Amino acid sequence: MIDEHGSPILIDFGGLCLEGESLRTVKRTCGWYDEAVTEATKQADVDALAEIEGLVICSAR
């Protein structure tokens, strides 16, 4: 999200868990997660951030 000053705000911490924990019982946003990823990993976070970055860059063009 972006606040009224144009600053980004991190939201949706419902899926927050420690590395190695199962994601099977974590709420995730439909259409915005890789169903093949079933365990929290640093690489999954890096991949998700890269996808978000791509979306932000594309929308800025």
Question: Briefly, what is this?
Answer:
Helix content is 31%, strand content 0%. It has one helix and no strands. It comes from Trichoderma ghanense.
What does the secondary structure layout of this molecule look like, with pairings?
Elements: H1 42-60
Protein name: Protein kinase domain-containing protein
Overview of the structural elements:
- This is Protein kinase domain-containing protein.
- It comes from Trichoderma ghanense.
- The chain has one domain.
- Helix content is 31%, strand content 0%.
- It contains 1 helix and no strands.
- The longest helix is centred in the C-terminal third of the chain and has 19 residues, at 42-60.
- The chain is globular, with a radius of gyration of 13 Å.
> How far apart are the termini?
19 Å
Radius of gyration, in Å, reads 13 Å
Q: Give the overall shape, derived from the CA principal axes.
A: globular
Mean pLDDT: 86
| SS class | mainly alpha
Q: What is the chain-wise order of helices and strands?
A: H
The profile of the biggest β sheet is:
none
For the record, the count of structural domains works out to 1
Poorly predicted parts? none
Q: What's the tally of helices?
A: 1
The helical percent reads 25-40%
Estimate what percentage of residues fall within beta strands: under 5%
| Strand runs, count | 0
